[in-house]
Amino acid sequence: MLSRGVQLPRKERNGRAGGAGPTLGRYFRITPEVLVNAPVRSGKIAEQFNSLKLIPTSGNRYQITNFEDISLEVELISLPLYYDETLRDGTPMTHIALVHGYDCLATTIIQHCAYFNKGHECQFCSIPVSLEARNTVLYKSPNQFLTVLKAATKEGRATHLTLTIGSPDRPDRGIDEYLDFVSHIRQHSDIPIHVQLEPPKPPTLLESLKTAGVDTVGIHLEIYDDTLRKRYCPGKFQHASYQEYLEAWRIAADLFGKGQVSSFILLGLGETPTQLHRGFQDTIETGAIPVPVPYRPNPGSHLEGQVPAYVKQLDQLIEVYLDCAQLLWEHQLDPSLHRAGCIRCTGCTALTEAYQVVQAKAIGKH
Predict the structure, then answer these.
(1) Do 133 and 92 meet the contact criterion of CB atoms below 8 Å apart?
(2) CB 97, CB 105: distance < 8 Å
(3) What is the DSSP letter of 110?
(4) Which of 96, 191, 297, 328 has the fewest CB atoms below 10 angstroms from its CB?
(5) Do residues 181 and 145 lie in contact, with contact meaning Cβ atoms separated by under 8 Å?
(6) Average pLDDT taken over every residue of the chain
């Protein structure tokens, strides 16, 4: 479901369009503990990805009809009720923050990345798309976010937060904006907070996030191989070298704790399992958790029409997950202990499930 995507009846609303990360997905429960963000596809694109066909059964439940000989029923997670509400000024609450997974409230506090000004944007990113479509606003204020947080919490759809930002052209990479946001949240709530940013310069600036009350951080390298990273992430490549990412992960792990720092690693852009294995080792040895995520061609991005390599290599994709999970097990970094953000949500990666498989084998369960 994560890699091939699903075909849904037209009446179901798709996930968010645009943004820096995976788009056009809906969340499903496979079991009470297993949740996935599956891209919703149709037509020619669904054929290219061999997307799974979902047939309605009862309520929010769907039967998968074309996955080998496995019969599987999944539950489509309902959209939050506050999605139909507005702020006092008439701004739709969905323009301020959305729920990821079942109960992770997420927002991009500035819906613009400076790399787009210079033509150095990440090739897979579509952060301007939702703004151009008027599905969001450029700047979210802390007060706006707190109003949405209250509404989402009231219906049980916010138990931890993810805050992201389009990188500003400053050495701190957005820490100033994060500090303002987090300080407002901490005046009203002790909810766990995850923030994402590039390595700030100097990386010791990360300490201010810890002092402000941030629980976990994501410092996303995206790609280990320098040649591929330069091609797909030219701005981020120029900003910080691989060694600078390693240093930032080490400093962050010392501040926030081992296993409370993460880095998205995109699968399907050309890296081999051997390259990924070496990168996973490097990341884990700093105390950070690599988060393998199948790259999703976002509409409006430069790679919109590119079909990832993993589409015809599902077995290899599974082996990559198990390899990462094995390394995490050997270093005693359990992703299920991550306090806030993408790893706790689990929707866009199969890492937690792979770790459970490795753990079960290690302790002799079947």
Answers:
(1) no
(2) yes
(3) B
(4) 191
(5) yes
(6) 93
130, two tokens: 């939702």
Q: Which residues contact 268 (CB under 8 A, 6 or more apart)?
A: 294, 295, 308, 309, 310, 311
- Confidence category of residue 133, pLDDT binned at 50, 70, 90: confident
Q: How many CA atoms lie within 13 A of 195 on its CB side?
A: 31
- Percent of the chain at pLDDT > 70 equals 96
Report whether the peptide linkage leading into residue 202 is cis, meaning its omega lies within 30 degrees of zero. Answer: yes
Q: Tens digits of per-residue pLDDT, 211-260? A: 999 999 999 999 999 999 999 999 999 999 999 999 999 999 999 999 99
Model pTM? Answer: 0.94
DSSP secondary structure string for all residues of 116-181: HHHT---TT-BHHHHHHTTSS-SB--HHHHHHHHHHHHHTT--SEEEEE-PPPSSTTTTHHHHHHH
| Least confident piece of the model among 43-47, 139-143, 326-330 | 43-47
Distance CA 16, CA 128 (A): 13
Enumerate residues 6+ apart whose C-beta is below 8 A from 135. 16, 17, 18, 94, 95
Distance CA 176, CA 158 (A): 24
CATH number, domain with residue 89: 3.20.20.70
Average pLDDT over residues 197-218: 97
Q: How far is CA 31 from CA 52, 63, 183, 272, 353, in A?
A: 18, 13, 37, 31, 11
* Residue appearing with tokens 């294995």: 277
- Residue-number span of the structural domain to which 330 is assigned: 6-362
DSSP codes joined into one string, 248-261: HHHHHHHHH-TTSE
DSSP-derived letter for residue 312 is G
**Is 1 domain-assigned?**
no
Give residue 301's identity as a one-letter amino acid code: S
Could you tell me if residue 350 is inside a domain?
yes
Number of domains within the chain = 1
Contact between residue 35 and residue 28 where contact means Cβ atoms under 8 Å apart: yes
